[in-house]
Amino acid sequence: MGGVSSYAALSTRARAMYADLLTPQDISRLSDAPDLGALIGMLKNTPYGKYLAGLKEGDPTPRRVILQIRQRLAASYASIVQQAPEQTRPLVRQLFRYFEVGNLKAVLRSIHTISSWTADIAPWDRVSEVLFPMGSFSAIRAQEMVESGSVVSAVEFLRGTPYETTMSFAMKRFSAEQNLFPLEVALDLDYWRRLWGEIKHLKGKDREMGGKLIGSLLDLNNLMWAIRYKTFHQLSEEELINYTLPFGFRVKDEDVRAIAAGADIPATVSRIYPNLPDIAALLADPIAGLPQLEHLLKQQVMKQCVSTFIGDPFHIGLPLAYLLLSDFEIQDLVVLIEAKSSRLKDDAFRPLLLKTTLVQ
User: Fold this and answer.
1) I need a labelling partner for 72 at 20 to 30 A (CA). Which of 192, 229, 254, 331 fits?
2) Hey, what domains does the chain have and what are their CATH numbers?
3) In the prediction, which pLDDT does 122 show?
4) Tell me: the pLDDT tens digits for 7-30?
5) Is 337 in contact with 66 (CB distance < 8 Å)?
């Protein structure tokens, strides 16, 4: 189980896929596109070209373009799940399920707001454009959920899926408050608990490298949850602890509890990430500073991913690192697609790009 023989082909494949990622120079050139049409034309000369070939002539919507480029990441997941050693496949599948959780949230939000929509477009046609293309990996019946017309009815379609128990429990609070917040929090927490649990099932180098990568991503989410809950939602100490995770790679339970209890947030962040720039100045204005902090933390994960390709290649870390970097790349492309569609000025979108602002 594991070892050199089971990883030889997968490591070679992961390195080849890694080499096909766009460079910071590529992103910079794409940023210079004068409009969305020009950007699409430039993307057709990249590895995303075959996924954009199916776009209809004319003026494609940003949503449609984003859906098409995400097909590449979906194909990468499918390929890696197929090639990964058997003991690591549950981890890769659960990591992929992150996008299904996003789809499930989008479905529930659409149902919750459907009464305010105009009748010119059918609800499913509107929602389907924003869902990540999971293909045969999807465990939810999204269209039937949307067409059911109510959150209560939609949740019934989750019976027999990995979400059944979590959603059944969270629905008690939704029924009392008619607020999607407890449902979304429950989905997030359950997802990360399951993902961390899959790491704990691994052994040796798989567990070590998988823990560093997934743990870094988990830290990013958990820390941002804690800070936002404290800064913007003024949750009680008990609520904040209940809505976050008690484990991670660098962000520990005691860090989250300290924030919940009112500890100085910039000092806490600086202690966890001493290499980040002046956090106190960054968070002096939380509304502007927190998105910038999240940007910096994403880049920390990116650096962890890149470093994985140095050294021993015979572990699940390489394909995981590629998948995470591919996702971050698409996040940059989404920024560009939306910016070019809206004709934003350079200074409004270039600072949001992850690759071109990354300091090595």
Assistant:
1) 192
2) 1-85+316-360 (1.10.132.50)
3) 79
4) 889 999 999 999 999 999 999 999
5) yes
